[in-house]
Amino acid sequence: MQESVVFRLGVLGATATELFAAAVEPYGLKPKQVGLMIVLSAGLAASQLDVARVMGVAPSLVVGFADHLEGLGAIRRTRDPADRRRQLLTLTDRGRELLDTCSALARSLDAEFTDGLTPQEHAVLAGLMGRLAVGRGLPAGR
Amino acid sequence: MQESVVFRLGVLGATATELFAAAVEPYGLKPKQVGLMIVLSAGLAASQLDVARVMGVAPSLVVGFADHLEGLGAIRRTRDPADRRRQLLTLTDRGRELLDTCSALARSLDAEFTDGLTPQEHAVLAGLMGRLAVGRGLPAGR
DNA sequence: TATTGTTATACTCTATAACTATA
DNA sequence: TATAGTTATAGAGTATAACAATA
Q1: Any atom of strand C under 7 A from CB of B86?
Q2: Residue-number span of the structural domain to which A107 is assigned
Q3: Which residues of chain B have a CB within 8 Å of the CB of A134?
Q4: Taking residues A97-121, what's their average pLDDT?
Q5: Does any strand D atom come closer than 7 Å to the Cβ of B83?
Q6: What is the pLDDT tens value at each position of chain B, 142 positions in all?
Q7: Is the per-residue pLDDT at A131 higher than 50?
Q8: Cβ separation of B116 and A128 shorter than 8 Å?
Q9: Within a domain: residue B12?
Q10: Is residue B68 part of a domain?
């Protein structure tokens, strides 16, 4: 039972998110807010509603994330001139900078987390998880 | 960034827990309650405080889990005769039965989750995640 | 009328602190 | 006094429903 992939993903995932949250907290960020920046950076969504759909969260939740990221200067909100109901979110230079910092933190956490694995094993693990993510239609989100 | 093991574990883990929660819900169980049964089954803890330590949750949270599992007839609470403050939790026959059912559900979810992987890849993934869990001192929990 | 974003509200999960009973 | 369990309370995080602006 403990050997179940699904069960272990749940336990390890909770630990991983905890570590990641602690790492980005000094930058005023929560994991899901980083997820939003990733979605923008990858060009997976433009409007807030699109972001909500891609991340699999309620649209009302995106409002708060966008408010916060805007406050950090990480994103800009602009009304879509073609449809003035839509708020188009774009990453600012500061946002890209923050995202780079988060990437570096993630790399560092990865090294710590996969401490007992060889570089080859680490690569295999990353590859297999990437395929699971694709299979689930999961681009990012947390 | 999306390729980070820690980040992907977070995203995949949340999805996995969601699936597992939906699978055990018809049996009146939440993932953490299953985790408690696993801890007992594996002999990792006896008293409620031990369970809380092993699972990494607050002792007050275990009270509710134990109440619920007792209500389902899955565990028994007995006062430790040597120290009457301690509640010793033990799995009943019904508890073992429920845990077996959860194991079957997990196996089925695993098959679905690792659909795109060969049996060999599935085994490699399970092995690597097992080593990550050991490295983190994670026996169970969810 | 329908849709986007927002606000108000409520629900779930969890932790901290106060309490009890035993030690 | 200290510890195991319990209860009361509070804080995250999230969703649903009502609302405003625009289509």
Answers
A1: no
A2: 5-136
A3: 116
A4: 97
A5: yes
A6: 888 999 999 999 999 999 999 999 999 999 999 999 999 999 999 999 999 999 999 999 999 999 999 999 999 999 999 999 999 999 999 999 999 999 999 999 999 999 999 999 999 999 999 999 999 888 744 4
A7: yes
A8: no
A9: yes
A10: yes
**Residue B131 covered by a domain:** yes
Residue B91 lies in a domain: yes
- Closest-CA distance of chain A to residue B113, Å: 7
Q: Look up the pTM and report it.
A: 0.93
Please answer whether residues A6 and B112 qualify as being in contact, where contact means their C-beta atoms are separated by less than 8 angstroms: no
Give burial (CB, 10 Å; 0-12/13-18/19+) of B69.
Answer: buried
Q: Tokens 């923008």 correspond to what residue?
A: A40
Using pLDDT thresholds of 50, 70 and 90, give the confidence band for residue A113. Answer: very high
Backbone region of residue B141 per phi and psi (left: phi > 0; alpha: psi in -120 to 50; beta: other values)? left
Give the pLDDT confidence score for residue A5 in this predicted structure.
Answer: 97
User: For residues A4-23, b (16+ Cβ closer than 10 Å) or e, as one string?
Assistant: bbbbbbbbbbbbbbebbbeb
The predicted pLDDT at position B141 comes to 40
**Closest approach of B50 to chain A, Cα-based (Å):** 18
Question: What domain count does chain A have?
Answer: 1
**Which candidate from B3, B106, B113 shows the least CB-CB separation from A1?**
B106
Surface of A (55-114) touching B: CB under 8 A: 99, 102-103, 106-107, 109-110, 113-114
Q: Say which amino acid occupies B25.
A: E
Is there a contact between B136 and B75 (Cβ–Cβ < 8 Å)? no
What is the chain A residue with the closest CA to B10? A13
Is strand D in 7 Å reach of the CB of A32? yes
